[in-house]
Amino acid sequence: MLGLDIGSRAIYLTRYANGAVLAFGQCPTPVESVVDGVVVEPSRVADALLRLLRLMRLRESSVCLVVGGTHVINKWVEVPRLSPEELQRAAPLEAPRYLPPSREPMLYRFWVLPGVAAHFVAPPDSSAVSGQSAHASPQAGDTMPARLIAIPAAVVHSRLDAALLAGLQPVGVLPEADALVRLLTRHHRPHSLLWRGKATALVAIRYDYTEMSIARETHLEFTRTLRIGLEDAIEAVQRALGATFEEAEALLQESQLDEDGTLHFPEALGLPPISLLGFLHGLTAEMRRLIDFQRSRFPEGSYLGLLDSFLIAGEGAILKGLARYCSQSLGLTVLVGDLLSALQWRVPVDDRSSEALGRYVSALGAAIEGELGMGHGVGEPAVVEPPTGIPAEGVQVA
């Protein structure tokens, strides 16, 4: 199974089968081919993807795509107590009731808590739900919690178009928050008393946004998308040194962040230190806000409201010293997601660190979900089902 993540600046492709990573690679996204989350030039993206597929020598075509960013809506709502199948059929009419009016076509999906879905009992007169019955006012006890996922149709369909033009066969589209949870909670120990009911915060720092989520054991409990990304740190270096974006990004990867939020470059370069406090204060302020929000959702002192650790992933994980700075600022454990230990790698990773591999986390999560499900099952992360001259970088092949 392939996992595909088409971002604003890079395309990430992974191959996963039989519990192991078999290949991973990336290439730059063609300039101005992805605008506001939409692939506006699918043919150019498909050409880049084809070159990447050839360089990685991949013949498999089944692919699960991941979609993230500020345009993806995740919201917990109370819905009529229907079977999961009936609820999905009712989604086009039921879901808009819980959202502000949208000027663009949207795709909707409901995800029902595993315990709720397992205990659903269809009433004697249950039948395929119609729009009218979906809108009927539920009586007390006739509702249940469900997570509503809404994604602009253009965001999904444009990615599917690019994948199809590249000769791939999409099996599903996975919200990024679910991909993160699928991968970063693989070490969850269901029979451990210390893990029972435990919540972990996941922070995926992408180029142009940050996905900040809470996972309860192995399920996504809450997520929000922030307009803070690695680009903010890169642009700070760019302004201070008068460098191009590419030069600033390369310098950032060679630098070290100290506990005061100052970026230090290798001595041989002779460059002055640069403060990244603007970027860091914005990020840690949102992490504190998440801690306070989680605590406010439960009775005072409840273990369920405790967030004692954060896992960092995404392109931003490459910033050396970031986890240490955040840990000191928050007074909590902050670690970079250890992908090398979380997965079996049947492909050389050379001297790559978990920080360097963090950019593949969403594509890997999508590949794992596609391998496990080939579709959407009760209790699995929500999947939106699909309708019927750029060099590659960092390619690794099994």
What does this 3D model show about the protein?
The protein is an alpha/beta fold. Helices cover about 35% and strands about 25% of the residues. Among the domains are: about 75-120 and about 130-150; about 185-340, ATPase, nucleotide binding domain (Nucleotidyltransferase, domain 5). A hairpin with a 3-residue loop joins strand 1 and strand 2. The longest helix has 20 residues, at about 275-295. The chain is globular, with a radius of gyration of 21 Å. The two termini are about 15 Å apart.
Briefly characterize the structure:
The protein has 398 residues and is an alpha/beta fold. It has helices at residues 42-56, 84-94, 114-118, 131-135, 153-165, 176-184, 230-241, 245-254, 277-296, 322-330, 339-342, 354-357, 361-373; strands at 2-6, 10-17, 20-28, 34-35, 38-39, 62-67, 73-80, 106-112, 143-152, 169-175, 199-205, 210-216, 219-226, 256-257, 262-264, 274-275, 309-313, 333-336, 344-345, 393-397.
